[in-house]
Write the C-alpha cells for this entry.
Amino acid sequence: MILLDTDTLSLLMRHHPGLTKRMAASEPVAITVISRLEILQGRIASILKAADGSQLTQAQHWLRESEEFMRRLPCVEVDTASASIFDQLRENRRLRKIGRADLLVASIALAHRATLVTRNLKHFQQVPGLLVENWAD
C-alpha cells in the first residue's frame, strides 16, 4: 500500500503532473486520517480568516473541492496497532523533534507496512523501518 503524506496530497489536489502520472502506475494509494484532518483544518482556517466575501466564497469552494477529492481515496485511520507503534516511537528521544502529526502518520504507515510518499524525507527517514519515497521532485 502507498500512503500519501499531507504535502504530497496537497500537490496531487493541485494536479501535479508527475504525481498524477505516478499514481496511475502504482499500487493502491490511500491517505491517513491525519492528512485528511490537516487538509480540512487548513481549509476551515481559510474560511475563518477570509477578509471579505470574495475570499470567503473562494475558501468555501476549496473546502468543498478538497472534501470531494479526498472522498475518492481510501482513508486509513488510527487503529490499535498504529497506536501501539506511536507509543513506541514517542519513547525515542531523537524522534520528538519530528512532531506529533508526523509521528502519527509514520505509525499508521508502519502498522500497515505501507510506503509513505512525502517530500519531507528529512523527518520521516529518521523513523526506523519506515519506507519513504518522494514522487514530487
About this structure: DSSP finds seven helices and five strands in the chain. The mean pLDDT is 94.
